[in-house]
Every structure is written in structure tokens, then in C-alpha cells.
Design goal:
Protein name (chain A): Nitrogen fixation protein NifU
Oligomer: heterodimer
Strand order of the largest sheet of chain A: 1-2-3
Function (chain A): May be involved in the formation or repair of [Fe-S] clusters present in iron-sulfur proteins.
Distance between the termini of chain B: 50 Å
Number of helices of chain B: 13
Structural class of chain A: alpha+beta
Structural class of chain B: alpha/beta
Radius of gyration of chain B: 22 Å
GO molecular function (chain A): 2 iron, 2 sulfur cluster binding; iron ion binding
Strand content of chain A: 15-25%
Helix content of chain B: 25-40%
Keywords (chain A): 2Fe-2S, Iron, Iron-sulfur, Metal-binding, Nitrogen fixation
Number of strands of chain B: 12
Radius of gyration of chain A: 23 Å
Order of helices and strands of chain A: HEEEHHHHEEHHHHEEHHE
Number of helices of chain A: 11
Family (chain A): Belongs to the NifU family.
Largest sheet of chain A: 3 strands, antiparallel
Chain lengths: 282, 400
């Protein structure tokens, strides 16, 4: 059954601003027939660079049509610089949310808007940014685009990547490559954290607690959750960190190994070498 | 709002006679068929009469019918049961258009030490039988090929397939979930070794199915437990549903001629008039070798989920092979295997009728579907002038 908000339904059944603008000032086209959805956005601007009219044409599912309709309503009356600030999340929020697996519809809206703005500013379509290699052949998604979505939306699983940019939703043969991109993005982010953290500096207790929490959330939980497990931080006392395993980790015979090789190792790597991690059963 | 149900390949209405047959088995004859007392034992006799009814519809011996919980269980029991009974054989032959119950099971087996050959189909959805003959090796434990396709209704020449399988010394399992009750099947003179059927596709309730296992086939149980079903499937029998399935099979046998004539007439009218009224539409699947109740149509330049939403608004229930309706982003593997262009897969709609469908309902769909396609095409940036086959029209990215 369709899990659409009333607002999505309203914009699908009664789409606003369908059609073409004669002699538009800006046009953005994204998607293709092969991908299963496409959007053509047309804008008319006044002398001061304010959007006076917006029209669209969409090939796609209910939420693709609703997202395009919402986008045209959102940009009207805005200057181009104001409009440029609209994110995919803004479009989804305007519609009172989109189902997870439909988030790529709002991404398509933002991309069409970006393309239209670039078109108006006379920019050549900025090839270099997305000149990466095609990873998902089914939907023609490049490694650069996947990495962008992973960073932008803090994605940690292949399924999330598929929801946001469709990559990996077809034959699935690119799943290992997508996983590699996710790993690489987060590895780089980690390195940034490492650099930011000066190793010699002593941490205050508050800093230490905060960092332990962050590392658990960012680096440890997603790994365990991917295997159906989970972990909870119970207490931090000096260098002693107490955690408790949850879900499948509770029964898992190798959780003791995980405790040392993953949990403790990560915390020592990112927080401080002197940490000792202990487990209490819940 | 009145609604028009044209999604009978997904599931069917339980026939009122079937419901009536089932009811006493909830509150009156609720004994366990395995019990020693008469109160339970009499139910075992009733189950045998249902077994007889199922056997009669498919021309089998009652002893060859094993009740299960659904089509998927029957498929799993058949394939895994044969593999277990023939542990030295590690090869399976199947097709690229199977229902997910077989398709994903074979994918799973391929990841777990078995060798799987998937046979392709042509643009009409038909198999190349020479390819089949070449695919079967000495090592082939089982060939699993469906009787009729759930998405397109295309019927495979299953007896010919069975002859080839027999010559090559392997076993044939067929998922006949969509075929049983819609077309005549006679297993007494058949080359089929195992056949899957499901209750809810033929006006019995959900949660009951059956597996035909030809006499003499060595079969290892899939569900291990009690002695039920001649030690071939543990678990207390789902008595009311089994009784319902028996009745549904009896009714199906009575109505077979009606499927061939009445239902087919309605389907043909529906198909022809929609193709006439909606330009840039096409039929997916072989026009002749097809179930009498199914039509699968593709509309260019529009997307299936949007079509279904608008049909739903009119109270019309249908389904689509579009990526956006599949739960994943993957468009129908069946239409893709047939080489239907992506553009047409996305705009595909399946309408499937039953003996309860009426001329009035068919007229209602004919009246409302073409305007829905027109309406979506007005929103679509594509049309005849921009007709692009498959390739990316514009790949734009203007990220800072």
C-alpha cells in the first residue's frame, strides 16, 4: 500500500504548475526514461532575479510528480540565491515527509533546480564534479554522486544509498563497489577527526565522554547493527568504559572478541589509548 | 465507492461456497485429525475427501497430493526435497521468469554450493527448448519451470519440457500456481514429476497450498516434525483451509469451461479496446499461449505506480511491473528477461480477471484507463516527439 502523506497525495492528484513556460529564463532537466523518472523544470525571472513563474513536467511515480509540484510552489517568489538553498530534505519536509525508499524523488527535484540555476547563470553543466566513473549501470550513477549522497545524508548502508540516488537498486552487481565507497567516505571522515584531534593533548572528562559517545554512535553501532546486533553505553568512569550488548550480539559467541577487537580498538583509536572497555549483561 | 477487482493473479475472492464448507471445521469438527478418538478421526476422513477433490482437478491420484501452507512452501518443499533426496546431484535448471518463490530460492542455492542454469526467454516470453536440452546434465537434480507466468500469463509447453527432462534423466517440478483452475491439467498422463498449486489463486483462502508428488519419486521432507501427510510434511493440518481448498478445486473443475470462454471473452475485449483507445501501448507476452484471464499492457512515456494510484482513485485494483511498485527499485525481472525496453517496463500494467468479473466491470476499466494514461502523458516531459529508446536523455549535474 502507498505510504504517502496527505500532502503528497494532494500534490499528486492535483499537481500545481504543470506545463511549459514559453521562452523560459532557466531550464533544468534531470533523469531519463530508462531510469524510471525524469523532471523538466522551467523558470521565469523578473529583472531583479526573482522567480515569478515555475512550471514542470515529470515522468515518474506519484511521489516524483508530487515532489516536482511542491518544488515549483517552493521556488516561486524567491530569488535564485534563495532558491539555491533549497535541499532535498526541504522538499520532503514541505510534503510532510516521503517514504524512505522514495527519497530519490526529492533528490531529483533539487538536482533539476540546480541544473536550472546553472543554466540561467550561463554555466556550462559542471562536468568535472560528476565526471566520475559509472558504478551503477542500471541507473547510470557515478561514484562521485554516491559519495556525495553518503556524505550529505550520513548514509551507512547500501539500502540507504539506493533510497537516495537509486544506485544499487537494479541488478545489484555493484553492491560491493557501493559498500567500498561508503567505507572510503567514512574512512576519510575518520582521518579528518584524527587530524583534528591533537594526540598529545590530555582530554577533560567531559571531552572524553563526548568522544566515546560519538565514536560509539558513528563507528561502532552501524557495524553491529548491520549484523543485527546493537550496543549501549552504560557508564564511563575514568578510563573504564562499560557497555552492554543488545539484540543478536547478546547471544553471539564471538561478542567477547567484538568487544576487544572492535569496540575497544575503535575507542582507543579515536579517543585515547588508555581506555579499557568492559561488558555488563543487561 | 464501488470497486473493480482486476488483480486476480495476486489473489482471489474466496468463493462463498468455499466459506460455507469451511465454517463447521472451526467450531463443530475441530478435532485433531491425528487423534485416536472418533471426534478427531472423522476429520482425517474429511481431509481425505478434500484430497480427492484436489486430485480430481489435476488428474492425480489422491496419494500424490500433499497439503502445504502456500505456493512458496510447495516450491521450497519440492526443490529442496529433491535436492536432499539426491545429495550427489548439484545442478538445477530453471528459467529467468520464475515467480520469486523459485527465482530467489535458486539464487540462494547458487550462493550455497549449487550450480544453477537460468534459461532465457524470447520477446514473447517463450523458452527455447533446444537450450533446455543442452542445459540438462547428468548432475541435474531437478528442472523447475513454471506452468504459466504470473505477470504475463504466458503458458509454457510443459509436457514438451517434461519429455526433454525425462529423456535426459532428470526430474521436472513446475510451479502451476497461476495455471491450476484456469486451464485443464491432467497429471495422469503427464511428464510432470512435482507440481505446486496454491489455494488463494483459485478462490480458496490464503495460507493453504498443495504439492503433487508423482508416485515413486524419492522425496525428503522439508518441514520435519510429526507423521502427517505420510511423513512428508510435519505439522497439524490446517483443516478448515484444506476443506476450503478441496471445495475450491471442485468448483474450479466445474467452471473450467467458463474460464476458457467467458473470462477469456472479457479479457480479450478489455485488452483490445484499451489498445485501441490508448496510443503507444503494447501487449507484453505471447498473444496465444496465454492464460485466459491475464493481460499485461505497457504504456509509453508514463510510469506504472502513477497509473495504479489513479486507477485506485477510481476503485480499480491492478498491478504493475514498474520499479516503483516492486518494493525495491528493480523493475519486473520477467519483463526485463523478455527484453521489453525499460521505458515500457516502467509503464506496465497487469489486469487479471476471474469468473466473478463482469462485463460492467470490464467496461468501467475501458472507460477510465485511457483517460488516466492521457492525463499522465500531459504531465510527462516525453511523448512521441521525444521518443528515446532506453538511453539517458540528459545527465545533468550542477553540484557546486
Amino acid at each position: 500500500m502507498w505510504d504517502y502523506s496527505e500532502k503528497v497525495k494532494d500534490h499528486f492528484f492535483r499537481p500545481r504548475n504543470v506545463g511549459d513556460i514559453e521562452d523560459p529564463d532557466a531550464v533544468g532537466e534531470v533523469g531519463s526514461l530508462a531510469c524510471g523518472d525524469a523532471l523538466k523544470l522551467m523558470l521565469k525571472l523578473d529583472g531583479s532575479g526573482r522567480i515569478t513563474d515555475a512550471k514542470f513536467k515529470t515522468f515518474g511515480c506519484g511521489s516524483a510528480i508530487a515532489s516536482a509540484s511542491a518544488l515549483t510552489e517552493m521556488v516561486k517568489g524567491k530569488t535564485l540565491s534563495e532558491a539555491a538553498k533549497i535541499t532535498d530534505n526541504d522538499i520532503a519536509e514541505y510534503l510532510d515527509g516521503l517514504p524512505e525508499q522514495k527519497m530519490h524523488c526529492s533528490v531529483m527535484g533539487r538536482e533539476a533546480l540546480e541544473a536550472a540555476i546553472a543554466n540561467y547563470r550561463g554555466l556550462k553543466i559542471e562536468k568535472p564534479v560528476d565526471e566520475g566513473t559509472i558504478v551503477c549501470k542500471c541507473f547510470g550513477v557515478t561514484d562521485n554522486k554516491i559519495a556525495h549522497e553518503v556524505r550529505e545524508h550520513k548514509l551507512t548502508t547500501i539500502e540507504q544509498v539506493t533510497n537516495f540516488c537509486k544506485a544499487g537498486g537494479g541488478c545489484r552487481s555493484c553492491h560491493p563497489q557501493i559498500q567500498a565507497i561508503i567505507d572510503e567516505v567514512w574512512q576519510k571522515e575518520k582521518e579528518k577527526v584524527m587530524i583534528a584531534k591533537s594526540p598529545a593533548k590530555r582530554l577533560t572528562n567531559i571531552q572524553k565522554m563526548k568522544m566515546v559517545q560519538e565514536v560509539i554512535e558513528r563507528d561502532i553501532r552501524p557495524t553491529l547493527q548491520a549484523d543485527g546486533g546493537d550496543i549501549e553505553l552504560i557508564d564511563i568512569d575514568g578510563d573504564r568504559v562499560t557497555v552492554s550488548f543488545r539484540k543478536s550480539c547478546v547471544e553471539c559467541p564471538s561478542s567477547k572478541v567484538t568487544l576487544k577487537s572492535t569496540v575497544e580498538a575503535k575507542l582507543r583509536e579515536f579517543v585515547t589509548d588508555s581506555l579499557i572497555v568492559e561488558e555488563v549483561s543487561s | 465507492m464501488k470497486f473493480v477487482y482486476a488483480d486476480n493473479n495476486a489473489t482471489t475472492m474466496v468463493a462463498p461456497e468455499v466459506v460455507e464448507t469451511m465454517l463447521p471445521y472451526f467450531t463443530e469438527y475441530y478435532g485433531n485429525p491425528s487423534s485416536m478418538h472418533t471426534f478427531g478421526g472423522q476429520v482425517a476422513k474429511k481431509i481425505d475427501s478434500a484430497r480427492q477433490q484436489v486430485a480430481e482437478l489435476i488428474g492425480a491420484d489422491p496419494g500424490e497430493v500433499m497439503f502445504t501452507s502456500c505456493g512458496t512452501e510447495s516450491d521450497n518443499a519440492a526443490i529442496l526435497g529433491i535436492l536432499k533426496a539426491n545429495p550427489h546431484k548439484r545442478h538445477i535448471v530453471t528459467s529467468r521468469v520464475e515467480h520469486s518463490a523459485v527465482y530467489n530460492l535458486c539464487k540462494y542455492l547458487a550462493q550455497n554450493g549449487y550450480h544453477v542454469t537460468e534459461l532465457g526467454v524470447d520477446t514473447h516470453g517463450m523458452l527455447n527448448l533446444n537450450e533446455l536440452a543442452d542445459a540438462i546434465k547428468e548432475d541435474t537434480a531437478v528442472v523447475s519451470i513454471m506452468y504459466a507466468n504470473n505477470e504475463t500469463g504466458v503458458i509454457f509447453p510443459i509436457e514438451e519440457i517434461g519429455n526433454i527432462v525425462k529423456q535426459k534423466g532428470s526430474l521436472l517440478h513446475t510451479d502451476a500456481v497461476q495455471a491450476v483452475g484456469k486451464i485443464p491439467i491432467n497429471l495422469s498422463k503427464s511428464t510432470i514429476d512435482l507440481l505446486t498449486l496454491s489455494g488463494h489463486k483459485l478462490h480458496a483462502p490464503k495460507g493453504v497450498g498443495a504439492l503433487f508428488i508423482k508416485k515413486g519419486i524419492t522425496f525428503a521432507p522439508f518441514i520435519i516434525g510429526g507423521h502427517q501427510e505420510k511423513n512428508r510434511r510435519g505439522g497439524t493440518e490446517n483443516v478448515p483451509s484444506i476443506m476450503g481448498l478441496g471445495k475450491a478445486c471442485e468448483l474450479a473443475k466445474k467452471h473450467l469451461a467458463e474460464e476458457r470462454n467467458g473470462v477469456k471473452l472479457l479479457r480479450d475485449k478489455l485488452e483490445n479496446e484499451i489498445l485501441q483507445k490508448a496510443p503507444d501501448a503494447r501487449l507484453n507476452g505471447h498473444k496465444i499461449h496465454r492464460l485466459p484471464n491475464t493481460t499485461n499492457l505497457s504504456f509509453e512515456f508514463v510510469e506504472g505506480e502513477a497509473i495504479l494510484l489513479l486507477l485506485n482513485e477510481k476503485g480499480i485494483c491492478a498491478s504493475s511491473g514498474s520499479a516503483c511498485t516492486s518494493g525495491s527499485l528493480e523493475p519486473s525481472h520477467v519483463l526485463r528477461a523478455m527484453g521489453v525496453p525499460f521505458t515500457a517496463v516502467h509503464g506496465s500494467v497487469r489486469l487479471s480477471l476471474s469468473r466473478y468479473s463482469t462485463m460492467e466491470e470490464v467496461d468501467f476499466i475501458i472507460e477510465h484507463l485511457p483517460p488516466i494514461i492521457r492525463r499522465l502523458r500531459e504531465i510527462s516531459p516525453y511523448g512521441r516527439d521525444t521518443k528515446v529508446k532506453g538511453q539517458v536523455v540528459t545527465q545533468v549535474s550542477a553540484r557546486p
